[in-house]
UniProtKB/TrEMBL annotation:
Record's keyword annotation contains Hydrolase: yes
Species this chain originates from: Abyssobacteria bacterium (strain SURF_5)
Protein name: Adenosine deaminase
High-level lineage: Bacteria, Pseudomonadati, Candidatus Hydrogenedentota, Candidatus Abyssobacteria
Family: Belongs to the metallo-dependent hydrolases superfamily. Adenosine and AMP deaminases family.
Stretches assigned to the Adenosine deaminase domain: 18-336
Length: 349
């Protein structure tokens, strides 16, 4: 069969297949035109291209985080959050995303004097409208920024518990990985679990194995965001596999921030083929100029993944989600059935 034809069919199948996204940040997903309109409305001066449109390389994670903070300043009212969330959820639904767990940055909005009630009622209103269309659902993760300190972390945890009835399912750890170890927040994460929240952590994005070990051992992280720092640590990789700690990988993000030098050097294929529960994610799609669908296409073109690999990534996204087991199984069967039909139609079997 002609290779170009095969690739065309595979990319069409990727476009059609139902998807799940586990590692995607709300503020970094807001389309550039919406950010620009909100900035104008709220009197925020955007510097240069502000990285709101398809990105060039940020050069360093710190440069990216500065651009992220600027985006957060563009949101100040319930209506702003509802408008932004409607655009984010529309883009997910357009990619055949069936379910997403979206990370929010409460501390950044708190520092901008935006009450969490404004944030969550806006997000909830957009989520309710998106669900009306069917075949789509969304939950939220509240992120603790390491660099903001333990008191802000406690406030984020209190807010997460308060808004569990609006879809908050987990606490996450993000921010400056190099200067703030996971162990600082062990008590926060233990409390979160006692309150019925799941726990995740960015680890091994720019840090090494010790950061990931800390997230797993001290925080009890059920999923690791990025995790590229595990490469080369055989004991850690085996632990992640045996303990079924899911790894949310974001290749374009890692290339754009300089965490890896190129797609070809990204460890996703290695981790996947070792049997880790690896999922594929877009991280901050509006800032990196990539969608989840495009991440899947790039994984085929540049990471050398086969159609079977792509299916495994898709199924892993469901398995690694925080859906209740019965809903998780239903969604997995739905996606498997839909993919079987796509395979037959696109002659990929």
């Amino acid at each position: 069969m002609d290779e170009r034809l095969t690739n065309s069919r595979l990319e069409r199948a990727i476009e059609l297949m139902p998807k799940v996204e586990l590692h995607v940040h709300f503020e970094g997903s807001i389309p550039g035109d919406v950010i620009e309109q909100l900035a104008q409305k709220n009197g925020v001066a955007l510097e240069g291209r502000n990285r709101a449109n398809p990105a060039l390389k940020y050069g360093h994670l710190i440069n990216f985080l500065e651009a992220y903070r600027l985006r957060c300043r563009c949101l100040s009212t319930r209506a702003d959050f509802e408008r932004a969330a409607a655009a984010v959820l529309h883009n997910l639904r357009e990619q055949s995303v069936r379910y997403a767990e979206i990370t929010i940055a409460p501390t950044m909005h708190r520092l901008n004097n935006v009450p969490m009630k404004e944030v969550m009622t806006g997000l909830d209103a957009a989520a309710r409208r998106a669900r009306v269309h069917g075949e789509f659902d969304v939950r939220f993760i509240f992120d603790i920024g390491r660099q903001f300190g333990v008191e802000h972390a406690w406030q984020t945890l209190r807010e997460a518990v308060l808004y569990m009835d609006l879809g908050v399912v987990a606490i996450g750890l993000g921010g400056d990985e190099l200067h703030y170890s996971p162990e600082i927040y062990a008590e926060h994460f233990a409390t979160a679990k006692r309150q019925g929240l799941h726990v995740v952590a960015h680890a091994g994005e720019v840090g090494g194995p010790a950061s990931i070990w800390g997230a797993v051992k001290s925080l009890g992280a059920e999923r690791i965001g990025h995790g590229i720092g595990a490469r080369g640590d055989e004991r850690l990789l085996e632990h992640l596999k045996v303990e079924n700690v899911a790894v949310e990988m974001c290749p374009t993000s890692n290339v754009e921030t300089g965490a890896v030098r190129s797609y070809e050097e990204h460890p996703l294929p290695e981790f996947l083929h070792r049997g880790l529960t690896v999922s594929l994610n877009s991280d901050d799609p509006a800032m990196f100029g990539v969608s989840l669908t495009e991440e899947y296409k790039l994984s085929s073109r540049l990471l050398g993944l086969s159609w079977d690999d792509i299916k495994t990534l898709s199924f892993n996204s469901v398995r690694g989600s925080f859906l209740p087991d019965v809903f998780k199984q239903d969604l997995l069967e739905e996606i498997q059935g839909a993919i079987s039909k796509i395979e037959s139609r696109e002659n990929l079997t």
